Amino acid sequence: MKARKMLIFLVLLIASVSVMAGCGSDKKEGTENAALKTIRILYPGEETDRMSEFLKNEFAEKMAADLGLKVEVVFVPWAQYWEQKDIMLAANEPIDLYWDGLPDLSTIVNKKQAMALDDLIEKYGQDMLKVLPKEQLQGATIDGKVYGIPSAYAPSSAMYQLVAVRQDILEAVGMTDIKTADDLKEFATKAKAKFPEMKGPADIIFKPLTRYFGDEQYNWIASEDLVVFGEDSKKAYSYYESEAFQKVAKFNREMYKAGLYTEDLTIKYNERDSRMQTGLYLWVEGSVGKEMEIINALKANAPNAKVKTYLLAEDKPRYITATGGEVLGIPVNAPNPEGAMKFINWIYKSKENYLFALYGVEGKDYEIVDGRIKKLTSNEFFYEWMFRNQNYQMFGPDVSQESIDKYKSWDDKAIRSASLGFRFNNEKVKSIETALKEVTGKDLAAIRSGFVDFETGYPKAIEKLKKAGIDEYVAEVQRQLDEFLAGKK
C-alpha cells in the first residue's frame, strides 16, 4: 500500500513537472513571438495554398531568424488593387510596404502615399545597393530625394512596346514571325478559323501599336496615359490627340468589327495578363523576357505552349525611358518603415535570399540543374517580375540560349531618353487631372480598344477632353519638362 502511494506520488510529480515545463515553453515561445516586430505588405493578386503555407512556415521562420520580423502579406485581387490601395492608405491602415507602377510615382508622392527613403537606405539598405546601383534609384527621385525602390533591375529599352505571342499557335497557322500590325491581324484571323476554342488576343497592346504607327517614338510622362514625350521633338503632347493614337484606335476598331477582340479587352482591361495565362489567348503586351515570366503559369493550362516576344517596327530606335516599370513604396504613416527597408534589403542581400523569396524552398519548390532553375510546381511566391535582378536572375530549362543571349544584350544599342528621370508634379493641376481621367476612363479607353465607333465617338470625346482642360494640363507638363531638360545641360 505504501509502495502504491509512493508510485502514485511519483506519477503526479512527473506530470506536474511536465505541465510546468510545457507552460515554461509556451511562455518562452510567446515571449519570442512578442519580440518580433511586424511588417504588413500590401500585395496584388490571389494567395495560393502553397504561398499561404510558405508564408506561415518556412518564410516565417526565415524572417524571424534573419530579421526578427513577422511578415504579414495582405493580398488584394488585381482588379481591385489600385482602388483598395488608395482607400487603405488614405485611411492610414497599418501598411508598411506596397507595390505600384514606377510611372505613377509623382502621383503617389503627391497623394502623400510614399515617404522619402534616403535615410532608411543609408541605415538599412546598403546590401541592396550592391545589386541595385544608385543610377537605378535615381529613377525614383523627386526634388533630389528617393521616394521608392525601382525593384526590377533588368534590360528595359522599348519598355511597354513589345508583344508576347503564342508562338506555337502562330506556327500552327503557317506563320513564322510578327513584324507589323497587319501581321497581328492576319494571325488573329487565321487562329480564329483553325482554333475556334481560342478566344483571340488577351490585350489591345496600344503601346506597341503606338510605337508602330508613330512618326516619332513616344513615352508616357504624366498621369496614366494622358501625355507623351516625343523623343525627336523633345516636346510634350496630348496622347489622345496624336495621329499615332488615332491610327491605333482605327486599327483596333477594325479588329473589333472583325470579331477578333472580345468586350473583355475594354471592360476588364487590367486582367490581360491573367487572361493570357489561361492558355486561351493569342497575345499580350510584352516586355524583355516576358516569355520567361509567364511560361510556367501558361504551361499549367496549355502544356505545349510556346511564347515569343516581338518588337513591332524593329528598325525604329529603342529608348530607355525609365529604370524599370515597378516601384516599392513605404507609406508616409507606415508603422514599421525600418522593417520594410530591412525586408527589401534582405531580398537583395544574397542570391540565396533572392531565390528563396521568388521560388520557395530548394528541393521542394525548385531545383537547379546545369545552371538553370527548374520549378517543381506551378506555384508562385513573391513575383519574379517585381524583384527581377540581372545580377541574380536565372533562366528555366525551356528558355533557349538564343533568347537568353538576346535578353542580355538587349540594351547594348539602346538610347537613353532625354526624359529619363523626369517626374511630373501634378500639384497645380490636380482637379484638371481628375476631370481628364474621367473622360479617358469613360470615353477614350473604349475608343482606344475599338469598342466604340471611332468616326462618331472620337470627336465628341476630344471635345470633352478639351473642356476638361487638356491644353492647360499639357502646358504645365511642358513647363516642368523644359525646366528638367534645361537642368541637364
Automatic annotation (TrEMBL):
InterPro entries for this protein: Bact_solute-bd_prot1, DUF3502, SBP
Does Hydrolase show up as a keyword for this record?
Answer: no
PANTHER family, per this entry? ARABINOSE-BINDING PROTEIN-RELATED, DIACETYLCHITOBIOSE BINDING PROTEIN DASA
Signal peptide residues on this chain, from the entry's feature table: 1-21
Give the PROSITE patterns listed for this entry. Answer: PROKAR_LIPOPROTEIN
Q: Where are the bilayer-spanning segments?
A: none
- Specify the protein name: ABC transporter substrate-binding protein
UniProt-listed SUPFAM superfamilies: Periplasmic binding protein-like II (SSF53850)
> What keywords would UniProt list here?
Signal
- Residue ranges of domain DUF3502 in the record: 419-486
State the superkingdom: Bacteria
